[in-house]
Design a protein that fits this description.
Chain lengths: 319, 590
């Protein structure tokens, strides 16, 4: 009986952690999904923007922490949110200076070649950001300490003496993720600019004829996608340590989520990320922590091979 | 790319000269640091050649070549540490592991294309990285064998390592050359440029891709094993890490993907550059190597996406040949003198299609279609746009699997066979939108089609030449397919289909996009083919042309057979007139 109770307890514990982490993963997948959905660009550097979001949060939190009104509790989360606009500018400029040369209206028509150029260009950007990060920030693992990082709410279970612990920092990060994802969803669905982005995604040529500046729409989408992922990175930083090479792991997590949700589907990307968070945390019940990421990669490969249109994808994309 | 023996001999001589020169320089250099460089350049050149064999020739970008490299490195290391097996045996063992891993990875992953393939390949080495960490191989040092160093590939004199590296380089170059100059390489290039067309022309695309990844995996594993011997320490992140895969890709793209010399050029430029910077600045700027590769690849993509090799060659080689004289296709029908190789005569219909159906979601593209084609006949299939004509062809040649129904060709059931098998059985086809291998010459395009029927390269080239003569395109044989006119493209595709000596030819709107004089020329060619005894099924939606050509017409509308019979009967059928011209017209005629 006590064995079963312990099992239930650890399952519920992993489930809770999975749901919280899943919200944050959902947000980062949403950022990547936006870029892929609007531009059909595989952005390899997305993980490194996430890493930059972490460092921006680290430095902003340190600066904000001194401000008496905010205090050490709120400042990391505010810093994470502020990382969004900062990295929006970064993504916007990257698109303007580099990515736009191999995407959008310029390469309309040369399907295969254009995509490989993008893939390889963003690989170059990823290498520069990763190693540039190493030069700027050093290889020592960092973390954004908040008083909440190590504290948890205790939720008692029915059984005597058993309880699950809900990390406070993760919970707040999950709430912020849901809020950010909801506002992005609203923005894309309702606002004028959001409609322009969707039009540019559906049919760039027709959108151009309707007077939409498709290249500008792409730049903005790239910037927003980058910013959103950076916010998610900042939120991850409040409960986990990181170093400049952390991006690569998250690239796989993000692509796993986006592919799972069906490439091109925004809502799907969020649920895909959520699923990956759950897989990661629940796999810890049976696997050693070192193999958590391997579990994600295996799930990712399984999805790719068996259902490349994603679990939530509506239309199968022919590649 | 030309199959000329002279070109191959020249390449072999060049490889020999490079190898010899490298060895001579290696023997003269005494500085151990430069010696290491002389070893590392061939190592990464081989890794680039390995990547190139798969990704350069087939166009399927692999971000996962570190898998094979790392498995090779760990095989050699574990064999030596745990079982006292010398690297002389460990490296061949690693190659076997590499081949096995390549087969296991390739078979499921080749179902994916484009983005999906690249992303999936990325996941393999990263998954392996964590697995090897978990297994406790964080950092494994190769033990020094002082009693018999040479037997364990351990040398005091670093020049020995250079010699082995050069030997590996020569091996990899020769393997690449052999692939590039053969049916193997041509098939891979065809896959890169248009995979469905390659499949329809009888190339077993999966088999060639599997062979490519297995050869590639063996090379990468060999060089990975040797890398472990040179560095004496193996860590999961140094051999399975992203930089390993990226380096293979970057040296190749820098030099020129899909070329024999590209990976070597790229390695010779980038490896010394990044290693020197690391040695000079590594303490101050730890990630300088990655930055060099990042910048190099961005510059290559923006400035010379085809790679340094082609850039330099285009600059120094004379301008491409002037466009040849306009070919005289009108005389094609007279020039056809070569008798068509006779196919075994089969009594009765050569193709029998029985209640064939296919729907896409709710749309019934082909519904309950039944027809027969007699040996040597010319059947025309007409119908308005969206009538299901092309879907019918895609079912016949195996691109699509029917929901139900039977397709029997010369006594063989075609349902469920892959397109290349169907082509091998003797069904050739052309496409509504021409699918040329744009960066190959007309002759090479046609040779791809000839491989199914010819065992040797020489015979294939002869068959291709003959097919080009039959369609009247022989004098354009050396032109690049990308620069042809629509009519020439149509003829070339026809020749590609003919070169495989099909018994049944499926022509999908061969007249689309042509002007009326060109239509007349094409009709003459088709008629002459039919006259030679080839059975032809042709799709068209211009009834005019079909009236002049077909023995028999079949009309499709909304996926169903509306009418079939003699051209004259069919065109006076009121339901056909209605489908084509609307109710009012048929009422007026009635």
């Amino acid at each position: 009986m006590s064995g079963l109770a312990a099992l239930t307890e650890s399952f519920l514990q992993a489930l809770t952690a999975g749901l919280l982490v899943g919200c944050i993963y959902g947000l980062m997948c949403l950022g990547l999904g936006l870029i892929f959905g609007v531009m059909r660009v595989i952005n390899f550097a997305q993980g490194d923007f996430l890493m930059l979001g972490m460092y921006v949060t680290l430095y902003l939190a340190a600066a904000l922490g001194g401000v008496a009104v905010l205090g050490p509790v709120a400042s990391p989360f505010i810093a994470a949110i502020c990382a969004g606009p900062v990295l929006f500018v970064g993504g916007y400029l990257l698109h303007r200076l580099l990515v736009s040369r191999v995407t959008g209206t310029r390469v309309a028509g040369i399907e295969g070649d254009g995509h490989y150029a993008q893939l390889i260009l963003t690989l170059g950007v990823a290498l520069i950001l990763e190693n540039g990060g190493l030069i700027l920030f050093g290889s020592t693992p960092q973390s954004v300490r908040t008083p909440l990082s190590a504290s948890a709410w205790e939720i008692p279970l029915l059984h005597e003496g058993s309880a699950i612990f809900v990390n406070k920092a993760r919970s707040i990060a999950a709430l912020i993720s849901i809020a950010a994802a909801a506002s992005l969803y609203w923005f894309i669905g309702r606002s004028r600019l959001g409609k322009a982005l969707r039009a540019a995604a559906d049919n760039p040529e027709a959108a151009t004829y309707m007077g939409i500046d498709v290249d500008r729409a792409h730049r903005i989408a790239f910037g927003i996608g980058t910013g959103v992922t950076a916010v998610a990175g900042g939120l991850v930083a409040t409960y986990s340590s990181f170093q400049p090479y952390v991006g690569l792991e998250f690239v796989i997590i993000m692509y796993a989520g986006v592919v799972l949700g069906g490439m091109g589907s925004m809502l799907g990307a969020f649920w895909g990320g959520m699923t990956i968070g759950l897989v990661q945390q629940l796999s810890s019940l049976v696997l050693s922590p070192q193999l958590q990421n391997t579990a994600i990669f295996v799930v990712f490969l399984a999805i790719m091979l068996m259902r490349p249109q994603g679990l939530f994808g509506r239309r199968a994309e022919r590649t | 790319m030309n199959p000329g023996r002279a070109g191959t001999t020249r390449a072999v001589i060049t490889i020999a000269i490079i190898g010899a020169a490298w060895l001579v320089i290696g023997m003269l250099v005494s500085n151990s640091y430069y010696q290491l460089m002389l070893t590392l350049v061939p190592i990464w050149a081989v890794m680039g050649l390995s990547w190139n064999l798969l990704s350069g020739y087939t166009g399927l970008v692999s971000f996962g070549h570190a898998s094979f490299f790392g498995l090779g490195a760990y095989t050699v290391t574990i064999a030596l540490v745990s079982f006292d097996v010398t690297p002389w045996l460990g490296i061949p063992l690693g190659m076997l592991v590499g081949v096995a891993a390549a087969a296991l990875i390739g078979y499921p992953t080749f179902r994916l294309r484009g983005h999906y393939f690249a992303l999936a390949m990325l996941a393999y080495p990263l998954a392996l990285l964590y697995v090897f960490e978990w297994l406790g191989y964080q950092e494994v040092a190769l033990p020094m064998k002082r009693e018999a160093p040479a037997r364990y590939m351990q040398f005091v004199d670093p020049r020995a390592y250079t010699a082995i590296a050069v030997a590996l380089l020569i091996l990899a170059l020769l393997v690449s050359l052999a692939v590039e100059r053969s049916r193997f390489g041509m098939s891979l290039l065809a896959i890169k440029q248009n995979e469905p067309a390659a499949e329809a022309a009888g190339i077993d695309t999966l088999r060639w891709k599997m062979r490519a990844i297995m050869v590639s995996g063996a090379l990468a594993a060999a060089v990975g094993g040797f890398y472990a011997v040179v560095l004496l320490v193996v860590t999961p992140s140094s051999v399975f890490g992203m930089l390993t895969s990226a380096q293979a890709l970057i040296v190749t793209l820098f030099g020129g993907a899909g070329t024999l010399w590209g990976p070597l050029i790229g390695a010779a430029v980038l490896i010394p550059l990044s290693e020197t910077l690391r040695a000079e600045l590594g303490d101050v700027i730890p990630g300088i190597q990655g930055i060099v590769y990042g910048v190099a690849i961005i510059l290559v993509i923006l400035l010379a996406p085809e790679g340094v090799f082609w850039r330099v060659r285009d600059r120094f080689s004379p301008t491409p040949a002037q466009p040849r004289k306009v070919p005289d296709v009108a005389g094609a029908s007279q020039r056809v003198v070569i008798p068509r190789p006779s196919a075994p005569a089969i009594p009765g219909p050569i193709l029998r299609v029985q209640s064939l159906s296919k729907s896409f979601g709710g749309l019934r593209a082909v519904e309950n279609v039944t027809f027969e084609v007699q040996q040597g006949a010319l059947l025309g299939i007409i119908g308005p746009n969206g009538a299901g004509k092309t879907t019918l062809f895609n079912l016949l040649n195996g691109f699509l699997l029917p929901d139900q129904g039977q397709i029997v060709f010369a006594g063989t059931d075609l349902v469920g066979l892959k397109p290349n098998r169907i082509c091998r059985l003797g069904v050739g086809r052309t496409f509504q939108t021409v699918r040329p291998f744009a960066r190959m010459s007309v002759l090479q395009n046609t040779v791809i089609g000839a491989y199914v029927a010819e065992p040797t390269s020489a015979a294939a080239f002869a068959a291709a030449q003959e097919a080009l003569e039959r369609v009247g395109l022989a004098d354009r044989a050396e032109a690049l397919a990308g620069g042809l006119t629509s009519k020439e493209l149509r003829l070339m595709e026809l020749a590609r289909a003919l070169a495989g000596r099909p018994r049944l030819l499926l022509l999908d709107e061969p007249l689309a996009g042509l002007g009326s004089p060109e239509i007349a020329e094409l009709l003459a060619v088709i008629r002459s083919l039919s006259g030679d005894g080839t059975t032809i099924v042709i799709i068209e939606h211009t009834m005019q042309a079909m009236m002049r050509l077909a023995d028999k017409l079949m009309v499709l509308d909304h996926g169903r057979v509306l009418a079939s019979g003699q051209p004259r009967e069919v065109t006076s059928d009121p339901s056909v007139i209605e489908a084509y011209l609307g109710k009012r017209w048929s009422a007026a005629r009635a």
